[in-house]
Design goal:
Blueprint (H helix, E strand, L loop, with lengths): L8 H9 L9 H13 L1 H37 L2 H10 L3 H29 L2 H19 L2 H6 L3
Bound molecules: zinc ion.
Length: about 150
């Protein structure tokens, strides 16, 4: 993060209260703030930081949901695990299975709720979408001209 000062404290404070997200306001109002982002290195850096934070949160909650889904799949299909639980902890197989399964379901629900909240409360979807399209454009530029011309515009 840059140590420089904000060029306009008032605008900087407003932007900070929005976590530097101006995607929710009307295009006419947005112009001034976009101008500030061009002029002010500090706010630009902060905006970048907050958007990468949102993106990271979205990715992490999504991965968490995937892992819980994977855990449920493992529970459904791997029988030796039940024996291990039975032998090492002296637990009842049925109880253990149900306990692990409920924990998996609860974890999956929790991560999906967390993911939904992140996607709703932050501009993460547009940030990740922007990243993806930037990657796609970069990739396209590297493609040989022959292949590029075959793609519909
Ligand atoms: Zn600023």
């Amino acid at each position: 993060m840059t140590r420089t000062r904000c060029t306009d404290r008032v605008v900087g404070a407003i932007l900070a209260s929005w976590r530097y997200d101006i995607s929710g306001i009307s295009p006419e109002m947005r112009k001034d703030y976009e101008q500030h982002f061009v002029e002010c290195a500090r706010c630009k850096a902060r905006q970048k930081f907050h958007r990468s934070l949102d993106g990271t949160l979205a990715v992490l909650t999504f991965l968490s949901a995937i892992f819980f889904l994977f855990a449920l799949a493992v529970l459904k299909h791997v029988k030796p695990m039940e024996h291990m639980a039975f032998k090492t902890f002296g637990l009842d197989i049925e109880d253990t299975y149900h306990m692990l399964f409920s924990a998996g379901i609860a974890g999956l629900c929790f991560s999906l709720i967390a993911l939904t909240l992140v996607l709703l409360a932050t501009p993460a979807p547009s940030y990740l979408g922007g990243l993806a399209s930037k990657r796609a454009r970069r990739l396209e530029r590297r493609l040989p001209a022959a292949i590029r011309s075959m793609r519909p515009r």
